[in-house]
From TrEMBL, chain A:
<dbReference type="Pfam" id="PF02798">
    <property type="entry name" value="GST_N"/>
</dbReference>
<dbReference type="InterPro" id="IPR004045">
    <property type="entry name" value="Glutathione_S-Trfase_N"/>
</dbReference>
<dbReference type="InterPro" id="IPR036282">
    <property type="entry name" value="Glutathione-S-Trfase_C_sf"/>
</dbReference>
<feature type="domain" description="GST C-terminal">
    <location>
        <begin position="88"/>
        <end position="215"/>
    </location>
</feature>
<dbReference type="InterPro" id="IPR010987">
    <property type="entry name" value="Glutathione-S-Trfase_C-like"/>
</dbReference>
<feature type="domain" description="GST N-terminal">
    <location>
        <begin position="1"/>
        <end position="82"/>
    </location>
</feature>
<protein>
    <submittedName>
        <fullName>Glutathione S-transferase family protein</fullName>
    </submittedName>
</protein>
<dbReference type="InterPro" id="IPR036249">
    <property type="entry name" value="Thioredoxin-like_sf"/>
</dbReference>
<dbReference type="InterPro" id="IPR040079">
    <property type="entry name" value="Glutathione_S-Trfase"/>
</dbReference>
TrEMBL record, chain B:
<keyword id="KW-0560">Oxidoreductase</keyword>
<keyword id="KW-0001">2Fe-2S</keyword>
<dbReference type="InterPro" id="IPR039261">
    <property type="entry name" value="FNR_nucleotide-bd"/>
</dbReference>
<keyword id="KW-0288">FMN</keyword>
<feature type="domain" description="2Fe-2S ferredoxin-type">
    <location>
        <begin position="483"/>
        <end position="568"/>
    </location>
</feature>
<dbReference type="InterPro" id="IPR006058">
    <property type="entry name" value="2Fe2S_fd_BS"/>
</dbReference>
<dbReference type="InterPro" id="IPR036922">
    <property type="entry name" value="Rieske_2Fe-2S_sf"/>
</dbReference>
<keyword id="KW-0479">Metal-binding</keyword>
<dbReference type="Pfam" id="PF00355">
    <property type="entry name" value="Rieske"/>
</dbReference>
Amino acid sequence: MITLYDFELSGNCYKLRLLMSILKLRYDIVPVDFYPGRQHKADWFLRLNPFGQLPVLKDDDLVLSDSGAILAYLARKYDETGLWFPDDPAVTAEVLRWHAVADDITSTASAARLALGFFYDFDVPKAQAGAHRIFRLMDEHLWFGEREGRDWLCSPAHPTTADIACFPYVMLSEEGGIGRQDYPALRRWTDRVRRIPGFTVMSGIFPAGQALEIA
Amino acid sequence: MTLSVSDPTWYPIASSEDLPFRHVYAGQLLGRELAVWRADDGNVNVWENRCLHRGVRLSIGINEGGELKCQYHGWRYANRSAGCTYIPAHPADAPARRIQNRTYPVREAYGLIWSAANDEQAFRPFPGAEGHDWFALRPMPVNAAPEDVLAALAGLAPDDQPADLLPGLAVRFGGTYYFVQPVDACRAVIRGLLAEPPAEPVATLRHYNETLTKLRDRLERAARKKPAPEPLQPAFDKVSADLATMPDIAIPKGNTITVVVKRKWTSADGVIGFELAARTGHLPTFQPGAHIDIHLPNGMTRQYSITNGPGELMSYIIGVKAESASKGGSKVLVETVREGDLLSISEPRNNFPLRRDATRTVLIAGGIGITPLLSMARFLDKSSLPYELHYFTRAGETVAFRADLEALHGKVTFHTGVPRDEIGATIASALGQWSMAQHVYVCGPGPMLETVRETAAAQGWPEEAIHFEYFKNDKVIDNSSAFDVELARSAMTLHVPSGKTIMEVMRDAGLTVPSSCEQGACGTCLTTVIEGDVDHQDVYLNNSEKASNRCMMTCVSRAKSARLVLDI
């Protein structure tokens, strides 16, 4: 039985809801009042995750934390197709590289969002500038990917956990005052992510229209 | 050079490749945010990036191929005209407000999308544009003043080949053209074009990208040391009252449009298709279920439903039944109007609005009644909403618009030559039991409409869920009564004798009365009743509207009481 310790407005928690929705997994949710209750710093939560961070996932007796690590775990354990976290050393390195970028997006775009929407004391201009720096790199990577026939962040011809890890805080960047107008290829990639079968929404992340079916 | 918000110059705002189908691109020009999208017919729309409803950005909307839908509140705007085709909170049976989003001029050429802040200048190709197979570089956004970006680009030219400055913030050297898109006073996008596609496209793109990245970094370092210029402040006109106010129900605006008969063909035995095209540009936005009045060469006016799908505004396609019993209207169209002829039509009007919040929509057509329902089916189809279309034709009659119907993805069932006594059962099973948020739309001959209305009512369908359009009133009009009408607003009392309609008597008294079908089918002459007992003989109102005694059609309805007081 899978249990997700979840805060609905957290992009990091949403990453797991998204993958579990795509993989059609059943799970329970234990809501954690991250804001304003700060329950992720409560004693009972720190006993689950001493790092005091959401999300936490319990699979029977196994307790896991860190959204990127949990994405890898869920894909390895429950994705029978093996596509979401492919078993190839070079691709694993690629996926983990983008998991690290996802953490950089969290520490910039998500930090700006926490400051503007949740009254956290962060340096907003610095966080915004950092997010723009990453988005520029992603846009360039994705733009050349389109020219080279690659639709996703990593080289396989299908999405991986890297796309899920990077997606939420790109989509929520406007809440941190970070526009995506300068990143057209990044915006097209978010359309593609939102068209993955099993895609689910969260507050601030809405579905994309249907792709044109070429008959 | 100082940037001006009213600069009429055409600038590139996107690459053609930035606009895949079913995507909405976010752009900006001279401080104005733009929502740019390519419709399924290839047409590119450049609109102000705001939904007129609450100002939510349209660049987060859904490109449905023929319409752009605002995700927050569900408003829809049509390809080409940007006319609003659906307002969710609007009562379903109210007429559409004539709302149009703000648009900007657009031209797709040389691998780029071009636009301008206003329509003051015609689009002109840049010098040397013709005769090349242009290849667009990766656009490079720069946080620096557009003039500084242009100067730096000119500085890229080799010493022995000085840059050639072109109008519109453009520069050329070697075979490369650079255009600076003035996003705002402190932001720009560099858009490069090569005169021919290179032998190794990706390597070439990477090479230019590297050069422009270095240029960008240098420009941004310099810009950070200067005080940032004030962003441009474009002023937006208010939406005109004409566009923003509710029009009176179904009263023709009186505006006519001249159209060319582009194509005339036999769609089925006895059904002639007409394609009516605008002489220039596109025709007005219409809603699914809408019709136009055609002013015929013999002076008659007849209504025909538009069969088009969303955003198809280059021409309207109608179907005309060429029956011998015709009173003359359709006969004239079928027999005398030829391809190339000009016709005068009204703006589209809608007495048969389609809800788009239904969980299940059932469309039932009989014969030529397919025309409004074909349009509805196309709208539902494009939006991937669930619907079932049942098309009844008599034995021997052939199915009109068959290829168009077969191209739909929804459930389309052809019922051909169903015996009269089995039609009821077929309709009953097509409808099923009603449940919440199901709607049925029916158009066809009178007896069939009655069968659908009765069957639906018997299976629990409430009146609000049954939507119908008669294309004519088959009832025998009893005009034997005589009574007085008091016209409250005109302060006039008229006597209506037997053998004359209220409308005729009002016209004899010098009043201008809007009318269209003059047989109680179209709703044009709908009038509010203040006092009196109405003898309804129309097929436009539903039973509860008739029972309310609050409204009537002056073309066929009469009074049961000695006196009627009308709000005219």
